[in-house]
User: What shape does this take?
Amino acid sequence: MNAEELATRVRAGELRLHELERHADADVATEARRQLLTEETGANLDAVGEYTFAAADAEPNIENMIGAAQLPMGVVGPIELDGGAAEGETYLPLATTEGALVASVNRGCAAMRAADGANARVLTNAMTRAPVFRVRDVAEAAEVSAWVRENVDALAGAAEATTNHGELRDVKPYVVGDNVFVRFGYDTKDAMGMNMATIATEAACDVIEAETPAELVALSGNLCSDKKPAAINSVEGRGRTVAADVLIPHDVVEGYFKTTAEAIAEANTRKNLVGSAKAGALGFNAHAANTIAAAFLATGQDAAQVVEGSNAITTADARDDGLYASLTIASLEVGTVGGGTKLPTQAAGLDLVGVRGGGDPAGANADALAEVICTAALAGELSLLGALASNHLASAHAELGR
Amino acid sequence: MNAEELATRVRAGELRLHELERHADADVATEARRQLLTEETGANLDAVGEYTFAAADAEPNIENMIGAAQLPMGVVGPIELDGGAAEGETYLPLATTEGALVASVNRGCAAMRAADGANARVLTNAMTRAPVFRVRDVAEAAEVSAWVRENVDALAGAAEATTNHGELRDVKPYVVGDNVFVRFGYDTKDAMGMNMATIATEAACDVIEAETPAELVALSGNLCSDKKPAAINSVEGRGRTVAADVLIPHDVVEGYFKTTAEAIAEANTRKNLVGSAKAGALGFNAHAANTIAAAFLATGQDAAQVVEGSNAITTADARDDGLYASLTIASLEVGTVGGGTKLPTQAAGLDLVGVRGGGDPAGANADALAEVICTAALAGELSLLGALASNHLASAHAELGR
Amino acid sequence: MNAEELATRVRAGELRLHELERHADADVATEARRQLLTEETGANLDAVGEYTFAAADAEPNIENMIGAAQLPMGVVGPIELDGGAAEGETYLPLATTEGALVASVNRGCAAMRAADGANARVLTNAMTRAPVFRVRDVAEAAEVSAWVRENVDALAGAAEATTNHGELRDVKPYVVGDNVFVRFGYDTKDAMGMNMATIATEAACDVIEAETPAELVALSGNLCSDKKPAAINSVEGRGRTVAADVLIPHDVVEGYFKTTAEAIAEANTRKNLVGSAKAGALGFNAHAANTIAAAFLATGQDAAQVVEGSNAITTADARDDGLYASLTIASLEVGTVGGGTKLPTQAAGLDLVGVRGGGDPAGANADALAEVICTAALAGELSLLGALASNHLASAHAELGR
Amino acid sequence: MNAEELATRVRAGELRLHELERHADADVATEARRQLLTEETGANLDAVGEYTFAAADAEPNIENMIGAAQLPMGVVGPIELDGGAAEGETYLPLATTEGALVASVNRGCAAMRAADGANARVLTNAMTRAPVFRVRDVAEAAEVSAWVRENVDALAGAAEATTNHGELRDVKPYVVGDNVFVRFGYDTKDAMGMNMATIATEAACDVIEAETPAELVALSGNLCSDKKPAAINSVEGRGRTVAADVLIPHDVVEGYFKTTAEAIAEANTRKNLVGSAKAGALGFNAHAANTIAAAFLATGQDAAQVVEGSNAITTADARDDGLYASLTIASLEVGTVGGGTKLPTQAAGLDLVGVRGGGDPAGANADALAEVICTAALAGELSLLGALASNHLASAHAELGR
Assistant: This one.
């Protein structure tokens, strides 16, 4: 059927909007939906229909497809970086609608280059999934917890049988009354790994249910914790815990940021440390989420995981030899295979960074991507702190001039 | 100059990558950047170059543009909703790469329709900005705080002089040692309002600096708190605080979710309430950020503000007449004018919802969008809770069958 | 009856342990309980029986009394303080079993005196109580919230009719699904005020239930939040928000703490700011709870409210003219009338500070006590930071000597 | 010298207040201080002077001693308990000034007895200390972290050489920029163990400084986290993580609490779960800190550690066979040896519970004390929830009667 015929049958009540792919190819189904929605709402959806991939190729990523959203993509770099996995000079694409973000990050990258580059390291790596089980009472909870602690090998066996790449790294039980949560942490290599972790955990849950009296209530019990702001992630990490830092000589600080290391350090302490403390925050940074979100969209990451990405701490310290600044992101969840990484524009984004597909060794590409994003986000921190501090200096100077 | 000429001059060191728009139109500059980056990195950026808007039109949103990222867009609905601003049946576009998300939210919407629709209300509305000032000591901090509390009208006068639409609603000082933070809250009508709030606050800061001994350190002191997970937002709200709920009869629960109201309520308590409590969370929901992120991308919102959107609490209660479920998002920051809302695919997305541009009365469109997103996110919560609960029931049934 | 006769009747099952005061005076009842418990458990309770007050006088504070717990009490001071309510030199008693605590705080007080004294100010003052109501749905929640915001005067009238001293300062509704929480804040003058706030709120709840469809579920809905660690208190305050600070010349720092301002500031940043940030804390201090707990026990405060007292932020900054340090306690709940303040040893403790009973104006004594405790706690912060920093310096020196 | 002579010499400036013990026995020094303070402040300190222990015996616990604070002590029980370490019927002394607390907890204990008793289990046990080290940059931070993970045995050797009883259980590094925090967790048996953990950690730090480039900044870096509200403790535990629960038949609920299991469960969900969620809490309970504080004071625990004790979650569930309720305290720090446990009234308090001194096996007494306190705190939760729910029911009934 063509789009018009599909639309006719939907209007006649013979088909439902989500069933069109059964009767036509994906692009036609998508077109028919636009027609129907335009009729119903008056919205002109032509722009949405101008997508660059075959709708069928997007099928793992979307249902009820009507087209594509387009976001402008810019680029920052080169990012000069001495990393554990990334090395040398790299570009990073950023897709955003926030004016000045790309320019701001880019300014920070330029200052870093003038400072002979940044360091970055992935510190820990574990994608987590934490089911919740019901037990009879706290006595049984203690028994099940003990069983879990003593049978990590059996759980690893079951979990790892479901995956070619994933390795179970940690298993930790937590008890609240008659609830037993078990947090599984996996090395999922170059995949972000949420699906891998879920499937592997499901197999491990079968073992727990078979061997203990615990009954599974939900495969995710929110101690994972996926796409929610949660201290367990800011403390223990999820995905990659990654840090970047740089020492910028005083003349470079002044040249690029029109302010001093002391003023930037003061702004950082009062805003990012004391202000965030007073705000009851899990994120002690200026706007790391901006860079992370833009990089996620440009490289095929999960946009909702920007939530965990924002669990980040910025430090800044004025020293004899310059401004020391660091950004540590506790839970940056990235992959270079799977998910949205196969879409044409996002695959191009990964190619631009030089990290598309599986790394060598496995995990090295995702490690490198994490380091590059963290370093770019640090550049964004420096640039915004510099702007805040120099505005202040500017007005201070204006006052003195009066 | 054409793209090739621009590229030549960059290679020759005569131009820098971010200066190309000064010498050519935006599309040509964008093309030149792709050429240069392809040469340097080997990345094929053709897909990135197939964007549907004029590069010049994206200029307020991006710098160093190389093209566009494309994300598949699906649609959910109709969402049947009795809201304070939204009314009747609405569609919502979702741009995502997470397979099954659209289908899952859509299933929840169908159950809501079978239940005669959801309710939604915007409860509070205030975009905030909170500068930090330096004072001499705690005695001066007390004086400045008192001055601020007593001079709200003067601050409002200065702040509102900068804007045609914004109204200053709240001003509240917070002291930590020799830091005074002042949190300003604005009704920014149909705009998300971060820029409006920043500009207005800058003017108010001038008054504070002129009338008190306080010295501005940073225009944002992180009590705002923008794009960071922070309790001040989950408690006090930022942007819209919006809630949606629905009562779903038992037969509808069973028909759509293949489980019972009791099982869904139990999963919600153990996962979203107790699990999140144990996780040290600010978000007590299953995956609200998924729906919020996808709706944000499809309607031109700021992707990094998904962070605050995830400050959401889901409740579920099994009652005699069915399953009562609610989702309350403390800090949903949305607009129907400004920012990314003018991009063609996002404008189409807003048209699909019927809320593009300024509302009547002002603010009504953004209110309606908040209600629709919250209701869709509730649909997503119900659907995922149903899936978690029914998997458990399924395995329970399988066991019984043995 | 005498104690032996009471004991006999309990053994015979004719009386229960908590009923003895109906048949004998309070001291005799207390003695009988000791006898019975000694028989049953073998515990020698003689020491517990050597209390200094009449058991009858303790009746508002205890049931099933068996005697008294005794804690050693020391004293720190003089505390030299320029406060909003406290002025000049003051002593503060501390009851504790933590060796070195009194000496440590006292060292800090000595350094403060050598620095010409500290400043302190009460910044806000509101004892809160927040009932939770059930409503039909979010539409009703919005209506009830609006009603509350528009009827603060009626609520104040009802609330203040229950009290001679208390004044209702703030009323704020919060909605989560079909829950409406209303946070009432009172100026309770020299009383800690939890009971006053509860009784007044109960009267206000009657008005809400009469005038709106909301039904009260619990008079405390945990947005109060009493005796639980909660961001709402660390952000918005409860009881007194109080801050103290001091500028200590470099030679005084070195003389008293055997380290430098720079080393103390570094320790504070790395430990109290960055460390607490990473820990997911609501308290960014070294050990403020130690001083607060000891002062609470010595002056008749509620020991469980040490929980809120620990919501405190310490800052330290090395400046040209010395070490600037501050402590801001968000929620210090103290009183100089009511509760445990009438017990003989605690009344003596308040006399030692010079703040027993009602102040002039009302509230001044509790304000002064808050300022004194905050300043002493700051002294404790300085002393511990100094010890941590000097240990490090000591070992650094030792290394250099090798 | 006698007290008068000491006082004379202080007045003459020949002695300072804290030096008196060098010139007289402790009781005389204490008396002299009271004389001097009475002269200076007018406070009558006679009651403070009537303490039951020899001042010299309190010397490890106090400096600048002036006497003792006395708090009324009551008793609750018998607590009927099936624990991992505690068994059978136990009494628990509570020292408090909060009227009705003892009666309330006691009512809960009675309901538990009528329900055939509660369960309790210690789930984990680790006293923590977390120093913070300075490193050059994030590359060095990664190296030091890796070294720590690979050299746990060497660290354990150094740490355990300092103690007869303690065992190092866990060592975990955390990085933020150029800070490396290392969280050490010890089994300290029957001691609360803070001192033991500190001394042992100091020895381990020497090893880290000798073997790596890390430099110790502070022996406590606030990831411990002692006496501060911090998610790391509510998530991972500190001291004992202990849980208690009970299933109370419906008739017992109604008999003791004058309400229904359903009403208690509803109050718990709306107040302790949803209300605490909205409050940004780390404690999801009604008033666990009340019972914990009172038990701590009566048994010689550290009053400031009530802060961590309040990291507790209460659940309540109405079932076919009654009300299931649980309390899980994440970080209850108790000991039966050392600290304040040797003071006469507190030693008597421990004897009353039957847990004074070292347990058999080591740790069993502190485990039992933790279980008893947790169960009593659960009794307090039930009683307060019952009171809140029955007030509501009472007014509901009154309405129906109209």
In short: The two ends of chain C are 76 Å apart (CA to CA). Strands of chain C lie at 65-83, 87-95, 118-129, 132-134, 167-176, 179-187, 215-218, 239-248, 312-319, 322-332.
